[in-house]
Design goal:
59% of the residues lie in helices and 0% in strands. It has 164 residues and is mostly helical. The protein is built from seven helices and no strands.
Amino acid sequence: MEFKTLLDWAKAQAILNTLEGTEYSVWRSVCRSYSKTYSTPLHLCLNGDIPPEDILLAEFESQLEDIDLEKDIEHILDQIYRLEDPEYERNRANELDDFIVQAELEEKERIKKKKPIHSSLRSETSKKTLPKSVDELTKNLPKGGHLNLSHLDSNDGEYGNFED
């Protein structure tokens, strides 16, 4: 086989493996990652010299090292549920579909009854409570007065002695 032909075949095969995602291409990807992480020759991983369960366990543990349990707990639980129940994904999708249908029905009913989106938007502002002019708004405000700041002159005042 000519080198150019071999090169073209390898590129095409790499693209195909990436697009198809067969078991073999996924296994090669895991082995490459393991080989890089643990400085192990790739052929030892691919040929079965290292037990596949050791390779997979090391890779999954490596992926979970940087996980923040508080932030990612929902994702971890989803993975556990998928492992326990093969129907989990389908059931979850059905629940989401049911929720969306129910929400749409409630929204149509709310619109039909002309209810506000949130209960805080329910009360309408009465025109009696709004001032008609600036004069009406300011008529009850004080017209005079002064501030007693004499306590600031005192050295023994509430705020302590400010002398150097």
